Amino acid sequence: MESLKVVSLEVENVKRVRRVDMTFDETGLTVIGGKNAQGKTSLLDAVKWTLGGDRFRPSDPGHEGAQPETKVTLSNGMIAEIHGKNSSLKVTDPSGKRGGITLVQDFIGTFALDLPKFLNSTATDKCKMLMDTFPGLGKKLADLNAEKAKVYQERLTVGREMEKKDKHAKDLPYDESAPEQLLSTSDMAAKLTATLSKNAANKAARDNVLVGKMRAENAAKNVLAKAGRVSEVERMLAEAKDALNHAIAERTGFDEQVKQSERTAADLIDDDVSSVKKEMGEIDVINAKVRQNLEKAHAEDEASTLRVEYNALSDRIEQIDAERVALMDTVKLPLPELAIDDGELIYNGQKWDCMSGAEHLKVGTAICMVLKPSCGFVLLDELEKMDLDTMKEFGEWLVENNMQAIGTRVSRGEECSVIIDDGIVVQVNKKESGFDL
Predict the structure, then answer these.
(1) What tens digit of pLDDT does each residue of 132-181 get?
(2) Cβ-proximal residues to 47 (8 Å cutoff; 6+ apart), any chain
(3) Residue 78 in contact with residue 103, Cβ under 8 Å?
(4) In 3D, which of 401, 373, 368 has the Cα closest to residue 106?
(5) For 387, which DSSP code?
(6) DSSP state at residue 77
(7) DSSP letter string over 328-370?
(8) 111 secondary structure, DSSP code
(9) Beta bridge partners of 406
């Protein structure tokens, strides 16, 4: 269905307007120019009143007490008029049926007649109005935004804990001389006992050498005694000789044992127990260093674990942003530079409060077109917010998008389609996309 446009306008005795009759092109920008207080805004108010009903009725509509008269013809053939002693509103449809303002309400958007109402709404409300035109978009974006906020808060908490663990680990000293594990008193005692046992065994072996030597010496004395007795006791010679031979054999055996014991004892090396005793004396100091190193390692492990969690949350935030971008890619917004981010409108990378007045008008007009597709026109006041180049581009954009805008500008320049002075049109500037008087 073709969107509704304003075809012609007849206004007489409304506020500052004395008499203005105009016809309009169905696309593009019509600029009503003139100095201040000459009837420009009064002309727009007349259109609002005629198409919007009593809620737009001026408090003192008649010009210098005269009876106000208006007539607005729309592109669907409807005609809205205000006339008579009581300034009653009458709407006639193409079939000739007559009625009140309800006949046009289904076709005309609220913001088309009262764009400031949209412009002055909160940034959140503007975004919600636009998103509500796309089924399910608002909830999907809200769900993604809520999840992003939750993940962001979780990442913030993890990041703070990670930084605390990192700082704690860096602040802890590290003693490279300390063993990796804590020392045990019972283990050290067992180690000392084993060492002492080994050393005791070595001592016993050395004592055996002394015993052997003593035995060998005693055997030698026995040999001397026996030899002395041989000279004295001839009759016991044979016996003595046997005893001597036995003693000699026994001595030889003991001598060999002594030599073997000496060789064995010479190879024995006692373990130094001083280091073990020192460790036992310093076990608390050493264990303090080990605990310190273990605490540092534990803090580093905790920080590393938190870093993995932090990075995972960061990845999820990026994924959510990508999902939001993908979701918005499925939505055809009225302006290519227009976007929705975190429940706010973004135009050319700027939020609403950072946009210029000209950008407000352009974005507002574009959104009006989306909010009420059946309404193809919008009324704009204060077009002086746009410089000439911006206004020209805006007019071209209106034509490209089959939109009609009727606005006012404090100016008497050639950019104005008509110039109003003291409530009447005093000059017409013909334009390609303008209007005819």
Answers:
(1) 777 777 778 778 888 888 999 999 999 999 999 999 988 888 888 888 88
(2) 6, 9, 11, 70, 72, 113, 379, 406
(3) yes
(4) 373
(5) -
(6) S
(7) HHTS--SSTTEEEETTEEEETTEEGGGS-HHHHHHHHHHHHHH
(8) H
(9) 30, 379
Q: Cα separation of 116 and 351, whole Å?
A: 18
CA torsion angle 84 80 11 417 (round to 10): 180
Round to whole Å and give the CA distance between 264 and 420. 131
pLDDT digits (tens, 9 = 90+) for 262-292: 888 788 887 887 877 777 777 888 888 888 8
Could you give the CA distance from residue 348 to residue 335 in angstroms, rounded to a whole number? 10
Whether this prediction's pTM lies above 0.70 is answered by: no
Sign, CA dihedral 114-118-121-125, equals positive
The domain covering 6-108+374-436 belongs, at the CATH homologous superfamily level, to: P-loop containing nucleotide triphosphate hydrolases (3.40.50.300)
CA distances from 308 to 42, 74, 166, 302, 311 (A): 66, 64, 13, 10, 5
Q: Can you tell me the distance from the alpha carbon of 33 to that of 23, in angstroms, rounded to the nearest whole number?
A: 16
Joined tokens for residue 188: 């050290």
> DSSP secondary-structure letter at 70?
E
By CB atoms closer than 10 A (0-12, 13-18, 19+), residue 361 is buried
pLDDT at 119 over 60: yes
What is the rounded CA–CA span in Å between residue 280 and residue 191?
10
Distance CA 250, CA 219 (A): 8
Alpha-carbon span 399 to 24, nearest angstrom: 13
Looking at residue 58, the DSSP 8-state letter turns out to be -
Where do the structural domains in the chain lie, given as residue ranges? 6-108+374-436, 146-317
